[in-house]
Amino acid sequence: MGDYENAHTPVPNPAIHHQDERPQAKRLVFHLSRWDMSRQISSGGAEFAGHKLVFTGGFAMLVGHNAGGRVPMGQIIPENQSIVVRFAGDSGDGVQLLGSQFAESTALAGSDFSTFPDFPAEIRAPVGTTFGVSAFQINLGARRISTAGDAPDVLVALNPAALKVNLPLLQKGALILVNTDAFNDRNFAKANIAADPRKTGELDDFQTVEIAMSTQTLEAVKPHGLSRSDAEQCKNFWALGAILWMFGRSRQPIEDWATTKFAKKPPEVLAGNLAALNAGHAFAETAELSAEIPQFVIGEAPMATGDYRSITGAEALSLGLAAAGELADREVIFCSYPITPASPILHHLSRMTDLGVATFQAEDEIAACCAAIGASFGGAIGVTSSSGPGIALKTEAIGLAMSAELPLVIVNSQRGGPSTGLPTKTEQSDLYQAIYGRNADSPLPVIATAGPGDCFDAAIEATRIAIRHMTPVFLLTDGYIANAAGPWALPDMQDFEPILSNTPPAAQNDETERKRAIWNRDPSSLGRPWVAPGMKGLTYRIGGLEKDIETGDISYEAENHQAMSELRARKVAAVADFIPDQDVEQGNTKGPVVVVGWGSTHGAIWRAVHDAREQGLDVAQIHLRYLSPLPKNLGRLLGCYDRIIMPEMNMGQCATLLRDKLGVKLIQLNKVSGQPFKITEILDSITTNYPAKAKIKAAE
Amino acid sequence: MNAPLTAKDFATDQEVRWCPGCGDYAILKCVQKTLADVQADPDQTVFVSGIGCSSRFPYYMNAYGFHTIHGRAPTFATGLKLANPELDVWVVTGDGDGMSIGGNHLLHVLRRNVNLQILLFNNEIYGLTKGQYSPTSRVGTRSPSSPGGSIDAPLSAGAFALGAGARFIARGVDTDAKNLSPVLKAARDFKGASFVEIFQNCIVYNKDVFDDFVNKKQAKETQLHVEHGKPLLFANGAKGLKLNPLTLGMEVVEVGENGASESEVFVHDETSPAIAQMLLTLPKEGYPMPLGVIYRNPAPAFDESFWAAHGNKGKRTGKVADALRRGSVWRKESA
């Protein structure tokens, strides 16, 4: 396979025939770019570069519609490469289940991976239409995988619409498995396809394998007495069976999972789905098709020793909030209102009641935020969550929490905007909203998550800051992170410091003394004691009117308002005293080029910088977690590079922030297509902007 | 043992800043006295308000207090009750705060039946913003924003509450502490959202708007103090409400030798939503103003159901370290 994560144009390799090749038994094979094919082949089934080269049968030849003279070769995905597989079909076809189960199987095989579901905004769009296509992409390999991949190498298309929508995304030479049963005039019409794409030459650049999946599925399921429509629903399991064979995976874990999943359904549902799974597997394995369907072998990725699980950002963030509650020894009260793509956090937390988490689905976004603040006033960790439009509604309440000096965590799962925008697509364009989006001077700490697993740590950190400084904190994530998944090394809870709150003062009978004690802020964090109703002898009143800096009483005094405004600014600035210095994730601490990112661009930037460095470019990567306030050393650090490239999925919001705060010059790389960055896009920017004069230095 | 608390113990050191003669003073005194009467614990008592004249209330109560944002007090109070269901939480709101900008939250806090008291000070005007007509203003109310008289139909707070699914609806008059205090006690005792509409006189912008039934000269003739199980009599028992089965409405009847017998007068059943509906929507002309506990029909309180549904009363029984392992976990041994 080529290094498809990078979407480099594959370099053709000569066909190499194994000595055991049988003329009739054909096998689709792919080339390996930057790969010494002769060594690979000469070693036969031996180990090479730490990876077992398996040639089941060892037959190499080209099949399918591509007869362009390019003869790909080899089924092993080398350790420095990866393969991108995309499943696509109608939103009712069970594509997400198919994809996630394949991901599960990848996890058990020990490879690294990253997944991303790409589903339409419509829940069940009309069957067969292009806007009803749901897809699931996975990038897997025996190396570190940092994104769900630029361009798929394998596409499983369950209907013509899925083929039409996904064809432009594919890597040239990609393998396409199509369900021919769905290729009829009716479906072409629904997908607005003029002519059968299999006959127009559109697929000439690809390897197409045509399979009558629906027929095969119906045949396999027949003995179990399911209705025709129920039987056809099993075709995702049939496709899963075929894919499991292609990747040499065991069916057992899937069978176990399905047994649990369908436990409450009539027994024929499980039987039918398992029959389809086995039939798909057997079909792929049979002589006639093993000729067309290649088998890939992907080794284990090097990862640190430990226990792993697959996790999405939404799940990790939810667990992180529960962990924060445990570390603070307080209840977490999560108040939210359904919105895409933030709702999965509400769903996950609703199942964590044993972890001291309570969820409240409020009547609207405003109520959700206010209830969370009410909970914080009452001594629980109030958390609210939404996406841009919902955050806009919460704005006034967030200002109140800031003014009343109450802790609050606000999670923003950013999506494409403005207004309702692109609800199911990703963007990171709510940074201005988080930092500036309130009336008056109302500074707040803002931090961002960098990937699915990182959401766990970020949620704990956001809560820690909120409680220490007694302030609302914005935690920015996005639609990509929320839904993307990858292996996650389980953290050890012992590694996290407890979250300590500012101790409430002793009960005071004297009203003035009491008030002074309640507003006696910690000199370093400027956080006040967390005094909650029910505490003995500490009654006090708070509100959104300006407060006297010492007693908290309503104050309209000019000097006091000046002092309070300055205090609020100093409090957020004080967060910088508690956060780590900004580090350099890859590369040198000075040099010609640094790529600075924040949020979900992390994976694409990591791979692009890594590859650029492998090409000999002296490029560094800096990824920001803390956006307000910025780490104290950031300005100095950025000053050590000649050029700063800032990729962002917005029109340049963080770039503006850095220019304003640090006076640095930046090269912006902005993408607002609703899709995450491709590695190539960042790599191209690095190459383009790399100073010609810069000497190539070996990494120290 | 400490000396019993007096009304004064519920006052704060803050200077009260309502207009002289404002009905809010009387309500404040009545609430302070009522809390002293029941020997409420200030440490366990919280007043939550939105924005408006009425919403300054928490600053003057020696209890915990939260003066929040316009219309949203019920939501803060809900979150607070979830964090600590033991607290005695009072929401103070007005006709603009509660019925206009906060109408949605009032609707939901009532239908959820969160265990708190909601005091809606209805003066049929926006006071703090200098006298614009409000959602409860009568048609034709002249104000800075309706110089030719307001044109929109007013909302009945009580009927709104009933429609929203409230289980406790009562009414009182600001200066009538004798009848308001028992209503406040009943509201406090009720497990669930108790909604109390208090007719409050805005002396500056809507002076004496309730004079037709508040004015002492005619109060006896125009106020109907309802009581569960008692006939709906007023005017010292000279008049009563009788059910007309044909119109399913109430009619005012004279009671006595020349009129209806007392047995014909309808007997109040505070658990009946149908009766509550009739009483809360009585026409203004020719009918008395029903006051007191009009509807009381208990149902499970949200804060209790909430924690019952969450199990363990929110106590942490599991560990995150274990929760991390829910689902499929695999072991990796580095080479």
Structure report:
The complex is a heterodimer of chains A (700) and B (335). With 700 residues, chain A is an alpha/beta fold. In chain A, a hairpin with a 2-residue loop joins strand 1 and strand 2 (51-52). In chain A, 57% of the residues are buried. The model of chain A is unreliable at 1-74 (pLDDT under 50). Chain B has two domains: 7-230 and 269-310, Thiamin diphosphate (ThDP)-binding fold, Pyr/PP domains (Rossmann fold), CATH 3.40.50.970; 232-267, no CATH class. Chain B has eleven helices and twelve strands. In chain B, helix 3 (95-101) crosses helix 4 and helix 4 (103-112) crosses helix 5. The longest helix of chain B has 15 residues, at 23-37. The model of chain B has no long low-confidence stretch (mean pLDDT 96). Chains A and B meet through helix 2, strand 11, helix 11, helix 13 and helix 14 of A and strand 1, strand 2, helix 2, helix 4 and helix 10 of B.
Provide mean pLDDT of chain A, rounded.
Answer: 88
Major β-sheet annotation of chain A: 7 strands, mixed
Q: Which class of secondary structure composition applies to the elements of chain B?
A: alpha/beta
CATH first level of the largest domain in chain B: which class? Alpha Beta
**What is the CATH superfamily of the largest domain in chain B?**
Thiamin diphosphate (ThDP)-binding fold, Pyr/PP domains
Largest sheet of chain B: 8 strands, mixed
Unreliable runs of chain B: none
Kindly give the count of domains of chain A.
4
Question: At CATH's second level, what is the architecture of the largest domain in chain B?
Answer: 3-Layer(aba) Sandwich
Continuous helix count of chain B: 11
Strand content of chain B: 15-25%
Q: Can you tell me the CATH class of the largest domain in chain A? A: Alpha Beta
